[in-house]
Amino acid sequence: MSKVDKIISFDISSDFGMFKKPDVNNVYFTFNIIPKPTLLGILGAIIGLRGYSQQNNKDYPEFYEKLKDLLIGIKPYGNKGVFQKRLIKYNNTVGYANKDGGTLNIVEQTLIEPKYKIYIGLDLSKENHKKLNEFIDEKIVQYAYIPYMGKNEFKLDIDNVKHYDNIKTFIPADEFAIFSLFPNISDQAIKTDEALRDPFDSSMNESYFYYFERLPIALDELNQYQYENFVYTNAKMGKNSEFINSLNLFSIDEKVVCLY
Q1: Would 171 be classed as within a structural domain?
Q2: What mean pLDDT comes out for the span 138-145?
Q3: Would you give the DSSP letter of residue 125?
Q4: Does residue 169 lie within any of the structural domains?
Q5: Reported confidence tier of residue 206, pLDDT bands at 50, 70, 90
Q6: Contact indicator for 32, 113 with CB cutoff of 8 Å
Q7: What is the pTM of this model?
Q8: Strands 236-237 and 176-177: what pairing?
């Protein structure tokens, strides 16, 4: 695990969002949860790191090269992790998109009012982590470049910033729920590590929910997405297993947060 000296949490939100899936061309679909590489791009924009358009034939864009080891956590504010989506149709009439001189009709899936609580684990011996600590301040957030929710026209807002200097790793002594998204390794973790519910326990009245999504977690040497299965749930997990021990869990505001 990367060294974590402090954790910053903040909310990002926008009227609309779009995190394009790369595997479909005729209709542009979006991921529901913001992918880690996209979030690193937002953080890079905040502190002035260059993106894909300024890559200059390097292996990775600057934001990814400088921030790829940063630990992050994500909690979606949607309905049990899911945001409302709409299909939007528009015409692209630029020349390079229409070699035959016609009009390209595009159908794009768009998130409606996406909002996420973000956690970042900072190693203050690293220069760019120190910049994030400075720029994402509790009183005012500075921007080198304006960040956006996946597309230039979807400017995002950052608020509810909190700094945590006394970091406590979470060691479970009993069953517990994970407040944020966490990796569902090999699609088996939630099946094998969820705590069994006592049918006579009054908490059985609580409605458990499960949201699963396969999300980009890193870039490979060709700048293509590498994926992992993730789950967001309020179900309780068992206190001791190889999977639980492999997670980077922290206790923040009496909640258990997973950084990855």
Answers
A1: no
A2: 95
A3: T
A4: no
A5: low
A6: no
A7: 0.90
A8: antiparallel
